[in-house]
Write a structure and sequence with these properties.
By secondary structure, the chain is of the alpha/beta class. It contains 22 helices and 30 strands. It is 27% helix and 19% strand. The strands form nine sheets. A six-stranded mixed beta sheet has the order 1-6-5-4-2-3, sandwiched between helices. Strands 8-26-28-29 form a four-stranded mixed beta sheet, with no helix packed on it. Bound molecules: beta-D-glucopyranose.
Amino acid sequence: MGIKKAIDKLIKKISDRFTGNGLMQEENTAQGERYVTPGIGEVIRQAGADGCVLLENDGVLPLENEVRTAVFGRCQFDWFYVGYGSGGNVNAPYKINLDEALADAQKDGYLQIDEDVRSFYLKWRAIPKNQPSDGWWGHWPMSYPEATLPAEIIKKAAEKNDVAVVVIGRAAGEDRENELAKGSYYLTDDERALLDEVTSSFKKTVVVIDAGNVIDMAWTKDYKGKISALVYAWQGGMESGNAVADVLTGKVNPSAKLTDTIALHYDDYPSSAHFGGLEYNEYREDIYVGYRYFETFAKDKVLYPFGYGLSYTCFDIAAREFKKTKDGICVKAEVKNIGKRAGREVIQLYASAPQGKLGKPARVLVAFAKTKLLNAGESQTIELSCKDYGYSSYDDSGVTGNIYSYVLEKGNYSFYLGNSVRTDLKAGEYSLDKDKVLQTLTPVCKVQNPFPRLKAQPDGDNIKAVYEQTPCADYDLKKRITDNLPAPVPRREYNGENFKDVIDGKLSLDDFVAVLNDEELQALTRGYGCMNAPQGVSGNAGTYGGIIKSLTDKGVMPVITTDGPAGIRIGRYNALLPCGSALASTWDTALIKNLYEKVAMEMEHYSTDVLLGAGMNIHRNPLCGRNFEYYSEDPLLSGKFACAFTDGIQSNGKASCPKHFACNNQEVKRNVNDSRVSERALREIYLKGFEICVKESKPVNIMTSYNKINGVWCHYNYDTVAIVLRKEWGYDGTVITDWWMRKSVSPEFPAIKNNSYRIRSQVDVLMPGTLNYSLSGYKKYKDLIKSIDKEGCITLGEMQLCAKNTLKTLIRLKKRDN
Ligand code: BGC
């Protein structure tokens, strides 16, 4: 074996050790100034506070008037600020934990902290063996061992204080799935012991959960009447402590709502029996994800419903007007603060469609809005609207007689308004006397291995759960692709053309692409080769575009990408944002847009172009390690928050890159796993958020995911990319792969493999540029050039199409040589 090969092998071995999946990810340490966009800290603090969901409160909160408080749990110091991996490892210039923030609140007279309990923790933490360990890529801690307080200290504290606060912390991340184990999904014995001791000693106990995803909450039942308040605080980024303290003290009146259902037990989640598979997962629950399942079939299995969250005031919500418009509905809601404190409320509108032949979820979120800060007694009228398309269903079996169509089946459509999915306030209704077809589409992602899927079926006044075989579409993918091969742009001799003229509108993109040679075309379809590429700021995720000299000579500049979404992940200091679950729990898209506008300013400061986010996969199962990055079990919320992210980043001239397209719903074996899913669930749930984001906010880039959908890797998936994303949704931006990709041969075109296969699927850029983490990865590109326009291989037109899609990013970024 040559020395180069041996080094390659060693690197791969190390990388496999570190990541468990053969990928090498960099963990950056920071250097330089502690820069953040002026004012971003305040917005992060507000988003963190507005994302804290108040689940219980018997009146103990807010903590004010110097209430005597003892704070338990090491996470008050060792807070989990965000999850792990590319969506978390940002070098924050500072981080505020709960202990520091409560000390400030004490100075302001809100509460008095018990110093004996505090100093116990300080001393315990000072012992080297009790220091938290950070772990390493894919092996980070999910929780820290809890301190064991002598019962005496707790008892004494209970005598001197009015309230106990107990903090419980969890984290998971990329390549780090949550586990159905104590210390991850479940509480540890030490945490239970602490809760037992505290709740039996104190009259009032407040529990704060610091986690990126939903963990088991069934234990709260064991403390009935003993837990006075429960705050699901998520992970609030570098201002976490301040955000939580603001809510605990009432400086901020909580207004967050759950974006996921909290079920009683893990087994109650409809995906629980089909999650974590090493080769594949059958999405048997079909469209019945989260509240769509619970509200239809298992209301009694819910601990806290979707959309739920308390405030320190109360609101009255009234439906004032309902209109059926030509292609949608419109509702006017009046919200009145009938309590004593100023606060904000989230207004949610749900549709309930007739069961018809397809079967439907009992409720589907179709619109939402957040009020302004309403003073006691103040009202606000809010208009909510939704297109018919937003509550129509996709018929993938033909049962309605309209196969591959979005349909409104005949019957009664009711709309409910309220502040959680459990509302019964009818805002209006209308009836259809016959089925209405809204769109007929091309079948995609044929199911190769059918499986039983859940269906709702009327049963007297009830709805029962039945299973039917998932339909398998039958079509000729080879013909579909061959019939739609893009025509080549006739080639011309290079005559001094410069890309800056394309940016300035003086030269057409076609005229520029016409002069690019094979070497340049292929360079435009791959990144530079490694993370931390030399053209960008240290710690960047990679570059693409002008990555070879002949391209930069023609005015094509490199595009610098960085992770995303929790801030810019580079070897410099910049703001660390709240995790996605926290951001979405605000239900405040304007606030999140504002936040990412400020992130875009940091991108400008560090001369980066693309932020690799929004992370917007659906929370299919609470154990998914990256749920913290993503927004919700609901596609409308996911889509709208990805829009807020994109609008913020792009309003300041930068590019967003929603990811991972699509069905990246678990971390275990994420780059080989097959998500087996019906076309209906794909379109109504897993692609829907992307559809909303693409249609409404036009992200400049999109990232495919590692996994397969029905047997086809997403970076080779002609159906999701060329048909759904580009043809149906009109996307003409740059599609990039997730980092590295799997080798494969096209089943339809045996001469086409790896990069050619990817280009045939219109996935424009391989990132960071090599097939796998190998020093010799570039060589594979020789095959690409050699095969252009050869019998059965990719065509010049396809190469040029990808090159044009890539160059559009540079046009949109106005990326020119200064
Ligand atoms: C992650 C992506 C990330 C990329 C670059 C991959 O492992 O799945 O979300 O953007 O690495 O860091």
